[in-house]
Amino acid sequence: MQCAPNIIKMYEYIKGPLISADPAQAVVESGGIGYHILISLQTYSVIHAQSEVRLWLHLLVREDSHMLYGFATRDEREIFRLLIGVSGVGPNTARMILSAMSNVELRNALITGDVARIKSIKGIGTKTAERMIIELRDKMLKVGLESAGEDHAAQPVSEIGAEAAAALQQLGFQRSAVDKVISRLQKENPSCGLEDLIRQALKLL
User: How many whole angstroms separate alpha carbon 70 and alpha carbon 36?
Assistant: First the structure.
């Protein structure tokens, strides 16, 4: 699979104890150092109940910061790299896409040209959705996807509303808007799990 140009491949993966995790970030210890890693919701759903993890890494270097993005599978990382190679899709938008859709859902939407499904994600307009389809459809046909953990049973998470709100704020949404949406969704479905709650909120924000 071809990746986006100018990708720095300094790190391949990290393996070690999972010190902490929420739906937007994780801290993994390796060699006595705790690494702060940005993750998607689908990666969180795989790793949050594990004591030791392996995350496939993508390093983003900017003038003022170095940021690590981590993924439960190599396929998710490669899809992330393909996404950020599309004009108008930055790393945060790519992470939001991978939080709102599974690898399989995104692959199918791109292959079938489902503009409506793709632009339902916050921050993706019609032109960007169409550009993603044009640029990535053929590449997605070549992707053979590993399981990204869709069949893993989600473990109970305490203070679901607070965790969901915190994750959404870390993705860049305003606290006031997040609180309203989370409150509404929890009233409509009090038993909604953390991952579903965030996915539903992403559609409304």
Answer: 9
**167-176 in b/e burial notation, b at 16+ Cβ within 10 A?**
bbeebebeee
CATH topology of domain 160-204: Helicase, Ruva Protein; domain 3 (1.10.8)
The closest alpha carbon to 167, from 191, 137, 199, 139, belongs to 199
The class level of CATH for 1-155 reads mainly beta
Buried b (16+ CB within 10 A) or exposed e, 24-56: bbbebeeeeeebebbbbbbbbbbbbeeeebebb
Q: Per-domain residue ranges for the chain?
A: 1-155, 160-204
Give 116-163 pLDDT, tens digit per residue. Answer: 999 999 889 999 999 999 999 888 877 655 544 433 333 333 368 888
Nearest residue to 21 via CA among 33, 36, 4, 3: 36
Q: Report whether pLDDT(180) > 90.
A: no
